[in-house]
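User: Here's a protein and a ligand (adenosine-5'-diphosphate). What would the complex look like?
Assistant: Let me lay out the input and then the predicted complex.
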Amino acid sequence: MSLLKIVNLTKKFDDVVAVDGIDLDVADGEFVTLLGPSGCGKTTTLRTIAGFYYPDGGEVYFGDTLVNNVPPNRRNTAMCFQSYALFPHMSVWDNICFGLKMQKIPVDQQKQRVSKVLEMMGLQRLENRKPGQLSGGQQQRVALARAIVTEPEILLFDEPLSNLDAKLRVQVRVEIREMQKRLGITTIYVTHDQDEALAISDRIVVMNDGRIEQIGNPYEIYRNPLTSFVAGFIGLANIFEGTIVKRENTRYTVEAPFGTVVIDGEGKAEPDSSGTLKFSWRPEEMKVRADNGVNRIRGTILHTVFMGNTTDLFFEVNGFRMRAQTDEVDVVRSGDTIEFTVPENAFSILRG
Ligand SMILES: Nc1ncnc2c1ncn2[C@@H]1O[C@H](COP(=O)(O)OP(=O)(O)O)[C@@H](O)[C@H]1O
Ligand SMILES: [Mg+2]
């Protein structure tokens, strides 16, 4: 049985449909990320799970209990925000202990649980400090400690790392994931950062305009996007549409604006019956100077961007722009003509 089940959930603010009929099942102990651009309905979904908003349509279940009208304080969830929401006048210890006091947990148990969480988060020596005397990363750790000390059934995160610099963001996200795995707490995590979502999640729910575009594990979402929105939002993608001129089982020959390609659609989406096929591939799938590769694409380099471990190549084929990524371009200059190959199985077939 799923620990959290959302069925056809809809939430409106006046005439704005913030969440438009979404379905989601979350298993016990799973780490699920809601990923999408600003305004797509992530926070609204999270706050509806927490009980801060009541749905306009659909159902939210914790286990087999319908919680649509259960107030937040009776849902056994805990929420972590980017703004930390720590009490500035209270010590680290008192901030973490606050929820336990509210729940009227016996004092000796309060002490035991706070000490344990302080140790787990590496905050032992900071317990007497006020939030203002802590770095951003330490404050985020206190906020996390305060959330997990109440032993919630579901842990909710709303863009918890947005206030941290890039290095710290990576460090704290690893800590969050390790802590979540160790405790086995079911977690719903909201972010607009695709790298964060790929790195941290068991499954990613890609949202767009109040709807779910795709649900899958990070590998599936990256390797096999099902819509042009997902292909374009997660990682970089070349996206084109062409006419199917030949089909052998799941192998399609497609006449695209830039030329003809052969696509191995095994394990990919089935194209619709229109005869046109929308497809994408990742820049890093383009091989430079492969001797016997298929799908040869010959283009003119517009410009190159050195990225350290790789180089981005922007080029043009018959007037159409594409990008490639490669680590062997020491001799490539703008204006050069270059030939790439793309493996037949490197393409995703898109539904929309
Ligand atoms: N309290 C509110 N009142 C009115 N409109 C809101 C409110 N909260 C969110 N919205 C609108 O609902 C949509 C989804 O918002 P939100 O869930 O905050 O998106 P996200 O967290 O993905 O950025 C947006 O169009 C936003 O403007
Ligand atoms: Mg938000």
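Summary: The first strand starts at residue 4 and ends at 13.
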